[in-house]
């Protein structure tokens, strides 16, 4: 069975973004779509680029490198999965954003390997679920201070994964928690941690995430589908 085209999926998502932004008086320019291509082919990822998507996200170094070799500088690349320190050398210099910074040892490895500052999101486990990676919200300000001397790390924002649920209030509380934490970090006025971005919202909950302040939404199945 043929999948819908990325172009038609993108059109629907953009309409939903406009609606969500209108609901809370935000500009659509504030929201960027990351096409999460981990479950699709390089050809499908290229289709996303051809449809006007500028950001691609991968969560494994082998999948990322395969697509990067084919597409390279046509896209802005986001590494959105758990990143082992030993894998940093494989992606550094190729990836534009890392969404899963959650420990000092990883920050030190990125700093050591990078030739210029890397844009990083701190992964925060707002929901407190055991199945999810990330720092507890109360740990984030202290963690940021411990990496202040790592000049190749720039904390551009925070990332979270909400519970997989249809309970809207649970989702809103999760996204609001990240927004509140972002405001706390911004009030610290740290040049290496401007924390202007929020990476939150996926195929099932991105409309709610936008209403609560998301600036990057990570869309896989609703945009590019799943070929596995």
From TrEMBL:
Q: Which cofactor does it need?
A: pyridoxal 5'-phosphate
Q: Which residues carry this modification: N6-(pyridoxal phosphate)lysine?
A: 38
Decide whether keyword Membrane is in the record. no
**Region forming the signal peptide:** none
A molecular function (GO) held by this record is: pyridoxal phosphate binding
Q: Which CDD domains match?
A: PLPDE_III_YBL036c_like (cd00635)
Keywords from UniProt, A to Z, are: Pyridoxal phosphate
Ranges annotated as spanning the membrane: none
Give the matching InterPro entries.
Answer: Ala_racemase_N, PLP-binding_barrel, PyrdxlP_homeostasis
Q: Which Pfam families match?
A: Ala_racemase_N
Q: Which residues form the Alanine racemase N-terminal domain?
A: 9-226
Q: What NCBIfam families does the annotation carry? A: YggS family pyridoxal phosphate-dependent enzyme (TIGR00044)
Q: Which HAMAP family match?
A: PLP_homeostasis
UniProt family annotation: Belongs to the pyridoxal phosphate-binding protein YggS/PROSC family.
Q: What does this protein do?
A: Pyridoxal 5'-phosphate (PLP)-binding protein, which is involved in PLP homeostasis.
Protein name per Swiss-Prot or TrEMBL: Pyridoxal phosphate homeostasis protein
Source organism (scientific name): Sutcliffiella horikoshii
């Amino acid at each position: 069975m043929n999948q819908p085209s990325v172009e038609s999926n993108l059109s629907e998502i953009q309409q939903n973004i406009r609606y969500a932004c209108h609901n809370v008086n935000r500009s659509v320019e504030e929201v960027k779509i990351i096409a999460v291509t981990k479950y699709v082919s390089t050809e499908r990822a290229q289709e996303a680029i051809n449809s006007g998507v500028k950001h691609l996200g991968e969560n494994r170094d082998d999948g990322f490198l395969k697509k990067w070799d084919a597409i390279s500088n046509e896209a802005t690349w986001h590494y959105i999965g758990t990143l082992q320190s030993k894998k940093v050398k494989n992606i550094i210099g190729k990836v534009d954003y890392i969404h899963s910074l959650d420990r000092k040892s990883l920050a030190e490895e990125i700093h050591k390997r990078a030739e210029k500052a890397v844009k990083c999101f701190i992964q925060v486990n707002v929901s407190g679920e055991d199945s999810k990676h990330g720092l507890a919200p109360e740990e984030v300000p202290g963690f940021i201070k411990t990496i202040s001397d790592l000049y190749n790390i720039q904390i551009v924002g925070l990332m979270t994964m909400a519970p997989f649920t249809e309970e809207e209030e649970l989702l809103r509380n999760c996204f609001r928690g990240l927004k509140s934490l972002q405001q706390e970090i911004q009030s610290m006025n740290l040049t290496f941690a401007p924390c202007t971005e929020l990476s939150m919202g996926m195929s099932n909950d991105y409309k709610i995430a936008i209403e609560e302040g998301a600036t990057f939404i990570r869309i896989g199945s609703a945009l590019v589908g799943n070929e596995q």
